[in-house]
Write a structure and sequence with these properties.
Helix content: 40-55%
Number of helices: 27
Low-confidence stretches: 428-442, 515-531
Structural class: alpha+beta
Length: 622
Amino acid sequence: MMIAEEDLRRVKEATDIVAVVNEKVGLKRSSSRWIGLCPFHAEKTPSFSVNPALGVYHCFGCGASGDAISFLRETQGLTFVEAVERLAPRAGVELSAEDPEQAKARQRRAALLEAMERAVAWYHDRLLTAPDASTARSYLRSRGYDGEVVRRYRLGWAPAGWDQLCQALRLPDDLLQGSGLGYVDDKRRRSDVFRERVLFPILDHQGAAIGIGGRQLPGGRDPKYKNSPETPLYRKKEVLYGLSWAKENVMRHATAVLCEGYTDVIAFHQAGVASAVATCGTAATEDHVRRLKAFGATRLVLGYDADVAGQGAAERFHAWERSHDLDIRVVALPPGADPADVGRRDPAALQRAVEEAVPFLSFRLQRVWAVADLGTNEGRARAAQQAVTMIDQHPNPLVRDPYLMEVAARTRLDPSRLRDLTREGRPERATGALYQGPIRRRTIELPRPERAALWFAVNHPETVTSHLEEELFSHDVAIGAYRALTSSATFAEAHAGADEDVATLLASLANEPDTGRSRAASLGRAFDELGNPLAQDDEATAAALSERALDVIAELVRARATEIFTAARLLGQRPNLSATEGAAHTVAITFLQANLPLLSDRHRRAAALDQLVPWLVTHQRE
C-alpha cells in the first residue's frame, strides 16, 4: 500500500508523539520537553528526550532519533506503512482508499490471521479442559510447566481425531489450507495437520499467531517435532519463535539469545533471560540475523551446542560477525546439555551461562583443548592443525593472530610455522581486501557556533531569520540542515526530507536543552539543571532569548570573518600582488578592522551584523 503525501502529512501533524513514546517509556516533563530512559539502550540516567512541539525524539546516549513513525518501526518492528496505519486512527485520520488488488491481499491476510487465532484459542482450550488432554497435562507438569506457564505461552493440545479442528472451526477450504491448519484430499475429505501433539503457537514480532509447532508425547508417532507448512503467513527462514516477547529486551540490552527449540526459549525466559528466541525447525539464516539486527542486537548468544553445527555453520557465523557487525558468543553449558533441563534444575545456572558466554571461536578452541593430547609431539601437532583450521575460518586477521599466538603457546610450536598453514601463508587463496572492521555511522562534530546557530533556527527561528545565511556555515551537514530548514514549510517537512546525517542532527537540536546556557552568567539568566531557562515573564523571556540569539550569530559571524581576515593578511604578504588585488585586500582589511570589534559592543552589535553578514555572503559567493 502506498501512503498519500497528504495523508502522511496529516498523520504526522495530528499525532501526539509524547503519548506514543509514553507507551514504552516513562516520560517526565522538563520545561518544554519530556525526558526518560532510552528504550534503545540500557541506561540509569535519562538521556532520551522528546520535543512534542516539533514531533521528534533524540537520545543523547546512543544517538537514536526520529519521529513517531520511526519510533513505532524501531520498537515494534513495523514497516513504514504498518506504522502509519497504526497511527492514523489515533490521530483521527482516515487514509485514502487503496488499490483493489492491495485491498484484496490485505483482506486475505486478515482472514488467515483470524483463522490462526481461532485455532490457537481452540487448541489452548482443549489443553486446559479436555479429558483427552490429561496425558498432555501430565507430561507438561513433568517438564515443569504449570498452569501459569501454559497460559502465558498459550500452549495447546491437538486431539487424536483426524478432523476435530476442521469440524470445530468449519473454515472454508482455502483458509484451512492457506493457514496450514488442514488439507483437503482428492476426495474432498478434510483433515487436521496436527494430531495428538502438544502445540506451541508461533507468533510474529507483533504477537499475532502465524504458525504452530507440535511436539509428540513420549511414545507418540514420528516425527518428534512438526511445524506448520510454509504459508503466506509463516516462512520459517524468517520467523523467530519468541520474538514478540523478547524484542523489547533485545532492544534495551542489544543482545539476543538464539535457541534451537520452543522449550529452550521458555526455559530461558522462565530463568529471567528475556531475550531468548528460536528458529523454527531450520538452521539459523541470514534473514534471522537481519531480523534481530532490526531490533538493535549487536551481540548474538547461541543457546545451544554450536560445535555440532559443522564447518559450514562456523563459516556463516564468522561471516555474519563481519557483515553485520555482530559479536557472536556461545553459552557456557556442559557438552550435550539441554537448556530446558538446566533451566528446570537450576534457573540461576542458565542465567549465568548467558552472562559468561564466550566468543564463538574461543568456544570452539576450548573444545579442541579439552580433548587434545598435549603431552606428545604428535598430539600437539594434531591439536594445532585442528585449531589453525578453525582460526583460519575467521575473516578478520586482527582476530586470527592472537588466537594463533595462543595455539603456539599451548602446543610449543613456532608461530611462523602456524601462520604458514593459514590464508596469510597461502596468498594464492586469499580473497578480497584486508578486513577494515565494521562500518559505523560517522560521528558528526560541528563547530560550536554553527551548532548553536542551528539550535536557534530549529527551536526559535524568529530570533535568527534576519541574520542567518548559508554562507555563514562551513560544515557540510550544517549547510544541509540550514538548506532543509529554509526550503521547508515546517520542521516536520525538513526532518522527513533530510538525509540520515542531517535528520539525526535536526532531531538532536530539537531535543537539546537551551544552547544559550553558556551565556547565562553574562546575561544574568537563571537555568535549571537540564539547561532550561527558569520561569520569567514573557517579555523578559523574549528579550533575553533575542539577546542570546544575537550572541550566537555574532560568534558565528566573528568565526567566519576572522577566517577571511587571516586569509587577507596572508594574501597581503605576497610579493607579486597586483594593484587590483592590493586594493581589494586593503578594502577587506579596513572593513573587517572597523566592524569586527563592534560585535563585542551590545549597543552596536546589531548594526555591525547588518554590515558584516551581507559582506560575508557576497565575499563567499565571489
